[in-house]
Design a protein that fits this description.
By secondary structure, the chain is an all-alpha fold. Helices cover 53% and strands 0% of the residues. InterPro entries: Cyt_c-like_dom, Cyt_c-like_dom_sf, Cytochrome_c550/c551-like.
């Protein structure tokens, strides 16, 4: 039984959680990014979700100063946030969940 709970804890740590990601968004991202097309200094996360893969979103959050050109930006205004790897997974999962259809999925 102890092994089961250990495996359950490890499994949960490996996967992202959308609800936790929403909390991370509210606490760290909502000042600059909207999810409802109401403006903000940064791009709306619906657009980011539509245009970019989840793994790329996570990379950008981890190191915006080195990734901004790969997102098509000419400059970077996003600060490096003190997020844990799990928080980055969670918020990336949340952003990815905003758009069920993706631009990059089109043929």
């Amino acid at each position: 039984m102890k092994l089961f709970f250990t495996l359950l804890i490890i499994t949960n740590a490996l996967y992202a959680n959308i609800e936790n990601g929403k909390d991370v968004y509210i606490q760290n991202c909502a000042n600059c990014h909207s999810v409802n097309m109401r403006g903000g200094m940064g791009p709306d996360f619906n657009i980011v979700s539509y245009s970019h893969k989840k793994a790329d979103i996570a990379k950008y959050i981890s190191s915006p100063s080195t990734m901004f050109r790969s997102f098509g930006y000419t400059s970077n205004a996003m600060p490096e946030l003190p997020l844990s790897p799990q928080e980055i997974k969670d918020v990336s999962e949340y952003i990815d969940s905003l758009q069920p259809f993706k631009k990059w999925m089109k043929k």
